From TrEMBL:
The record marks 239 as: Important for catalytic activity. It comes from Candidatus Dojkabacteria bacterium. Its EC number is 4.2.2.29. This is Endolytic murein transglycosylase. InterPro entries: MLTG-like. It is an enzyme of class 4 (lyase). The chain crosses the membrane at residues 7-27. GO terms for molecular function: lytic endotransglycosylase activity. The keyword rRNA-binding does not apply. It catalyses: a peptidoglycan chain = a peptidoglycan chain with N-acetyl-1,6-anhydromuramyl-[peptide] at the reducing end + a peptidoglycan chain with N-acetylglucosamine at the non-reducing end. Keywords: Cell membrane, Cell wall biogenesis/degradation, Lyase, Membrane, Transmembrane, Transmembrane helix. It is a single-pass membrane protein.
Length: 354
């Protein structure tokens, strides 16, 4: 009996640890794994006054939630998110995880709202086309593509409300258009939203929801303005295929700006040539003799304005570049990037991969 006591004591100590580890693994898997396979979004409604348990049951009934108890527990452990759940309509896919669902539930829309998805790396004229297409599906809307373009191209004379006017006064050079400031995201616009209200929402999303105080502080402490950061981020958006390569290419851009290549501070970025043509599929090689100030093969430094509207991954890569020894890069025909330290190595990569 005496020999059994230490063993029993051992079990008393070990079993709670094992259960704790199992519980942690179960919880972590439950909140991070997709609830299903389908990526097709389903409209889900939360009625004012509904509690977390009822919301969980309704999500499960709609086929959007596999484990209601994990959803309830996640809400209890994250009261700042749980308290932000709004009443209204949401678009949720079975492939969303519990973590993703709770983020989605922070921003409700009305059933009449217009959903518009703006991809990263588009010019403002391309964004105008998408907005015009989506708003044209609703009768009686106030959005005007002509007015949108006029405001974007002449923002200094446009009557923006605060805080939009404050952001532009602080960060946009006088006389420049809004290229770079129209944050790409999925938006729900009121069906009667005006062009200026659409623009304000996009700009405010950038400064209020995406850029953090730490990001702004890092920019303030750097040698570059926020406008220059957006300029670099826009090139990253068009020049890279993955988020992993963005900080590396960002450092290459900074080295070319500050140290130069063979004594010349030319960026030599093809995407700026394509901006000249307003055609991302144009032949960049045929444009290398252009007199446009966007020709970074002829003119040193940054292009006059951002060439597109970048997402947060590109912006943060421009703020926090990854130091490296490379000066050159190319993408092969499969989109895989290859770096080089010298022009000789770069030419070898071109011969090998292109």
């Amino acid at each position: 009996m005496k020999k059994a006591l230490p063993f029993i004591g051992f079990l008393i100590l070990v079993i709670p640890i094992i259960l704790g580890i199992y519980g942690y693994l179960w919880y972590n898997s439950a909140i991070t794994q997709p609830n299903g396979e389908s990526t097709e979004e389903v409209e889900f409604e939360i009625v004012s006054g509904q509690g977390v348990e009822e919301i969980a049951d309704n999500l499960a009934a709609a086929g959007l939630l596999e484990n209601p108890s994990a959803f309830v527990l996640y809400n209890k452990l994250n009261p700042e998110l749980s308290s932000g759940i709004q009443a209204g309509y949401f678009d949720i896919a079975p492939s969303n995880s519990i973590e993703e669902i709770l983020v989605i539930l922070q921003k409700a829309r009305t059933q009449e709202d217009i959903k518009v998805s703006i991809p990263e790396g588009l010019r403002y004229d391309e964004i105008a086309e998408i907005l015009a297409t989506e708003f044209s599906k609703v009768e009686g809307g106030f959005f005007s593509k002509t007015e949108f373009l006029s405001i974007v191209e002449n923002p200094d004379s446009s009557p923006f409300n605060e805080p939009t006017a404050g952001y532009l006064n602080s960060y946009k050079p006088q006389g420049e258009n809004l290229e770079g400031f129209l944050y790409p995201d999925t938006y729900f616009f009121d069906m009667h939203a005006t062009s200026i209200e659409v623009i304000e929402k996009m700009i405010n999303t950038l400064f209020q929801d995406r850029l953090t105080s730490e990001d702004l502080s890092a920019i303030s402490s750097s040698d570059y303005s926020l406008y220059e950061i957006l300029n670099i981020a826009a090139m990253l958006e068009r020049e890279t295929f993955t988020d992993e390569e963005k900080p590396v290419v960002a450092d290459i851009i900074y080295k070319r700006l500050e140290e130069g290549v063979d004594g010349v501070n030319l960026l030599q970025i093809d995407a700026t040539l394509l901006y000249i043509e307003k055609d991302w599929k144009a032949d960049a090689f045929s444009l290398k003799n252009s007199d446009s100030p966007y020709n970074t093969y002829r003119f040193v430094g940054l292009p006059p304005t951002p060439i597109a509207n970048p997402g947060i991954a590109s912006i943060q890569a421009a703020i926090y570049p990854e130091a490296n020894d490379y000066f050159y890069y190319i993408h092969d025909n499969d989109g895989v990037i290859h770096y080089a330290k010298t022009l000789s190595e770069h030419n070898q990569n071109v011969a090998k991969y292109l």
